[in-house]
Amino acid sequence: MSCIEPTLTTPLLSRFPNQTDYSDQDPQTITRPETLPEPNKLLIPIPPSPNTQTHYKCLATIHDNAGPISSLTLCGEFLFSASSTKDITVWQHPDLRQFAKFGHGEGSVKALVAVGNRVFSAHQDGKVRVWKVSTRSENVFRLVASLPTTRDYLGRCLKQSNYVQTRRNHRRLWIEHGDSISCLAVHGDVVYSGSWDRTLKVWRMSDLKCLESIRAHDDAINAIAVHDGMVYTASADGKIKAWDKRNEMKNSHCLLNTLVARSNMSWNAIATCVGTGIVYAAGSDGHVAVWQCDLEKEKRVWMLVCDVKAHGMAVLSLCVVSELVFTGSGDRSIGVWKRKNGGELIKLGFLRGHEGPVRCLQASWYRTGRGYVVYSGGLDRSLRVWWVPQEENLGVK
Fold first, then answer.
1. Which one of 4, 159, 204, 212 has the fewest beta carbons within 10 angstroms of its own beta carbon?
2. Residue 384 lies in a domain
3. Where does the record place the region Disordered (predicted)?
């Protein structure tokens, strides 16, 4: 996860400006609902004045999701949410009017990423599904492929050397994931998928062909982030690994470094901030660790600069926007943190209201209100919207 929001420049956005500051919104015309039985009628009230001493607060809650929220992603003017009931919902943000719904019957969704006019979804059945905006209607998504594609599968299935032994004593093609896919990331013309089968797979976006499969960890891969061409994988084996391409033409990757903070724990989420060389990782022991990579040196070296006890229970999700870091935890709270120049995290406060663990987070800067809109998805089946003013508006130095 990166601190730069992805932008979906497709027919999906043909009627909307390609920006996320919502500076043209008139907050005075918006009324505040606290709980929404009808999400398609939701209007989010953003505090209009940057001078008001507005504390963190929940702006709205959508309770009527079919299942626990498993993934959130912001794409241009839209928020995508996925649930364990196989549905993917598209919301216009910040108003959270329901725009579209798709994905019925295609396996529990674990992760989402969007690029161009396509949406990639990772599923519990070990498949990556590719959805495309319909040319007939921009609020309709159709399934165009599943990875590995039939063409890729048939081109390799007759050669015995293309088969590998899985941990459950089954033989599969190396292009197939043998367990639930937990995370996705996109960089350039490449899609990365990480799985509980411990492998990292590399897919070419142009033809959806699997280019590489890496046995990356000794336990399940829980998260992926891409930063300045480097790929970071976070695993239940307690390690963060940094990968780089050793051959640009073949898209093959090599291990640059292994980041370890403590033993006997699992890394559940990872995030980076472009241009800073900073890597954040969320642990099962409630800690958040921060590494700084010196981008100016020819040989990349990572230094652990911060390791803070952020929550009383496991940290399940991370989101980075500008100098703020948001952490979602099994203790049902969302931590708000400020990053200092050296990478150290300073606690600003907590957002509370979820009735279950906070599984996923996304955030966006709102210029007019001088603050952040934070979206959180929980295992309590609720999608919540929060307002976090810029820290100086709270008197925090």
1. 159
2. yes
3. 1-41
